[in-house]
Automatic annotation (TrEMBL):
Keywords per UniProt: Membrane, Transmembrane, Transmembrane helix
Alphabetical list of InterPro entries matching this protein: FecR (IPR006860), FecR_C (IPR032508), Ferrdict_sens_TM (IPR012373)
Naturally occurring in which organism (per UniProt): Hymenobacter crusticola
PANTHER family: PERIPLASMIC SIGNAL SENSOR AND SIGMA FACTOR ACTIVATOR FECR-RELATED (PTHR30273), PROTEIN FECR (PTHR30273:SF2)
Domain FecR protein: 120-213
The protein's name: FecR protein domain-containing protein
Ranges annotated as spanning the membrane: 88-108
Occurrences of domain Protein FecR C-terminal (ranges): 255-322
Length: 334
């Protein structure tokens, strides 16, 4: 994209006139490098100055000077410059001032959503994301987080599909909200885990530290540390209960804890962590109860433990692992 087109796109975003597709492209561009982020922040600063009801003498003089330079250049077209010459900033400021002066109708237009970046993780990998407000999000395997390049509204909104652990920076004037399945979690600054994987699974919010408010379409729930809210997708019912923090957040250290869980329910966690697919040859195998802790264990050790859990055998073909429960042996005949 040419520089003039890029500056125009940024200006249209600041005037809330960009489409969702343009917002996503711009958010990706801003996140590509510190230089891109500086360009965006500088243009945003000039935009805010131009909207001020009264500018001080120094600011007004600077804007008049830029307009004068722009008028002089309009009479004699300047030769094309490479993208990173010293007058890079002057070109950006001049174009921005021209647009501010000539298209005031942008300001009265209906708002459009801010540009959002998208991060997603494959199986077997997690990722830590630092947001614009300083908050940190650890994204679990096979998860997606959509978030703005900058928080400039009344709320700090992010959208989660999958699972993540949030460490939210405090800002009492701008609540942080996580939109996940049927639940919206609102906090001012705290640590909590959210799991919203869909496909018939529970959506859960587990509070480790601080306070959170969790809302569905009808009600609002306050959680204290050590409490978890679970939404049943089949019935729509909401449960508030205590939880084991080590069991819920252990995935951050590649640790899995199972306490009398069916193998079919534990399988999804094993699959995400080790990037494999578990296939049960019969329902009896899927119903085997599992009591086990895997603390960053290699996959063969996990499979060996599964064999001991329910007299299982397994056969591996690439990323697919077939599990079968051995039939009980008949007692020897006398």
């Amino acid at each position: 994209m040419e520089q003039d087109e890029l500056y125009l796109l940024i200006t249209r975003y600041l005037a809330r006139q960009t489409s969702a597709e343009e917002n996503e492209w711009l958010a990706t561009w801003v996140a590509e490098s510190p230089d891109h982020e500086r360009v965006f922040e500088q243009l945003k600063l000039v935009w805010e100055i131009s909207k001020a009801p009264a500018a001080n003498d120094a600011t007004a003089a600077a804007l008049r000077n830029v307009k004068a330079r722009l008028g002089a250049r309009a009479a004699t077209p300047a030769p094309r410059r490479p993208a990173r010459r010293p007058k890079y900033w002057l070109a950006a400021l001049a174009l921005l001032v021209l647009i501010v002066a000539g298209v005031g109708w942008y300001l009265a237009a209906p708002p459009s959503p801010p540009p959002y970046a998208l991060r997603q993780t494959p199986a077997g990998q997690q990722q830590t994301i630092r947001l614009a407000d300083g908050s940190r999000v650890t994204l679990a395997p096979q998860s997606r987080l959509r978030y703005p390049a900058a928080f400039d509204g009344a709320y700090r909104d992010v959208y989660l599909e999958g699972e993540a652990f949030f460490e939210v920076s405090k800002d009492a004037r701008h609540p942080f909200r996580v939109h996940s399945g049927p639940l919206t979690t609102q906090v001012l600054g705290t640590k909590f885990n959210v799991s919203a994987r869909g496909q018939g699974q529970y959506t859960t919010v587990s509070l480790v530290e601080g306070k959170v408010q969790v809302m569905d379409k009808q009600n609002s729930y306050l959680l204290a540390p050590g409490q978890q809210l679970r939404a049943n997708p089949a019935t729509g019912r909401i449960y508030r209960q205590k939880f084991d923090a080590e069991q819920v957040t252990g995935w951050r250290r590649n640790k899995l804890i199972f306490k009398n869980e069916k193998l079919a329910e534990a399988a999804s966690q094993i699959e995400r962590l080790y990037d494999v697919k578990l296939v049960f040859t019969d329902s009896a195998t899927a119903d085997v109860r599992l009591w086990a802790t895997f603390d960053n264990e290699p996959l063969p050790a996990v499979l060996d433990a599964l064999q001991l859990a329910g007299s299982l055998t397994y056969r591996r073909e690439g990323h697919v692992i077939y599990l079968h429960q051995q039939a009980p042996q008949a007692p020897p005949k006398r």
